Amino acid sequence: MTSNDRITITGTALAAPVVSPDRIAEFPVRDDRSQREYLVRIPADDLRLFVTRDARVDVDGEAGWTVPGRSWRGEASRTILLAGRVDRSELALAA
């Protein structure tokens, strides 16, 4: 039995979303705090913002299975994060 953990991460998108034929948007995000990489999946119709590489995002969802990385491509292992919400994260800039 697998249990999913409800988490919220703030991080940087490592690539723009790719939409599968079954309308699931998927893109990698590196969490700021833990530096772990997550593979964010959300129904394409629920992703209501434009995400590009290096975009700052807040993601709320359930973390579950881990996808092993491909060492020959320099990829890290990524935990699948089934997102319920993806928002833009804003950086606070000091003047």
Descriptive notes:
This protein has 95 residues and is an all-beta fold. It is built from no helices and six strands. Strands 1-3-4-6-5 form a five-stranded mixed β-barrel.
Low-confidence stretches: none
Report the helical percentage. under 10%
Q: Which percent band covers the strand fraction?
A: over 45%
Nearest-angstrom radius of gyration?
Answer: 13 Å
The sequence of SSEs as H and E is: EEEEEE
- 3D shape: globular
The total beta strand count reads 6
| Biggest beta-sheet profile | 5 strands, mixed, barrel
Sequence of strands across the biggest β-sheet: 1-3-4-6-5
The separation of the N and C termini measures 51 Å
Question: What's the average pLDDT?
Answer: 86
Assign the structural class, choosing from mainly alpha, mainly beta, alpha/beta, alpha+beta, or little secondary structure. mainly beta
Total number of helices: 0
Index terms:
0% helix; 5-stranded mixed β-barrel
Task: Describe the structure concisely for a colleague.
The protein is mainly beta and 95 residues long. It contains no helices and six strands.
